[in-house]
Amino acid sequence: MLSAIAVLIATVALCVIMVGLFGWGPPRDGRGVMRQRIIRVLLVVGGLFALMVAAVLFGAARPAFARDLGQWGGQDPDLRAWYESLMQPDVPTASCCGVADAYFCDDYRLHGGKAVCTISDDRPDGPRGRPHIDIGTVIEIPPYKLKWDAGNPTGHGIIFLSRNRYVFCYVQPGGV
Question: Which residues touch 95 (CB under 8 Å, ≥6 apart)?
Fold first, then answer.
């Protein structure tokens, strides 16, 4: 949909630029030549701006590809399906991500009125393609990122983090 809008904007922009460059005939009474030149320049500039907007929209419309760095090799298919089925509690159409963003984060508790958990994941980071986070690191969990509806077959609390430690989801331990 976004790419269709970008194509429509680009088409209109090109038409506006063409009118601005080649315009219409000279004023019949000889007056207004300067006004017509200003309008033509504005049409060209506006058309170029619309082309840039279309290019940005078209670039944003490209599909996002999931990364598979081999982190699923040797993984139980049921566990893999569970990871892939998790959706963010506050954005139900967005994935919690996958094993490459997942860390065991047991010791869930309230600290200073905020939910936190402590990283307890001693699994190697390399095969999972994720950045290292030291065991014992405390991560604050926003209340809208607590996921309580999916069960958890791992036996560990799991926190899903971006590379800059933005919390996608926290899944409490227990339940299947």
Answer: 84, 86, 87, 88, 168
Give CA–CA dist 147/112, Å, rounded. Answer: 21
If we measure between CA atoms, which residue out of 165, 160, 175, 143 comes closest to residue 84?
160
**What does residue 116 show for φ and ψ, rounded to 5 degrees?**
-140, 160
The whole-number pLDDT of residue 60 equals: 60
pTM listed for this prediction: 0.58
Q: 3-state class of 9 per DSSP?
A: helix
The predicted structure's pLDDT at residue 36: 74
- The candidate with the shortest Cα–Cα distance to 129, out of 94, 163, 170, is 163
Distance of alpha carbon 91 from alpha carbon 144, whole angstroms = 9
Angle, nearest 10°, between helix axes 2-22 and 33-60? 160
Q: Is residue 65 predicted with pLDDT exceeding 50?
A: no
Residues 6+ apart with CB under 8 A from 38: none
- Residue 14: left (phi > 0), alpha (psi -120 to 50), or beta? alpha
Tell me how many degrees the CA angle 67-73-77 measures, rounded to the nearest 5. Answer: 95
Closest CA to 164 of 133, 136, 126: 133
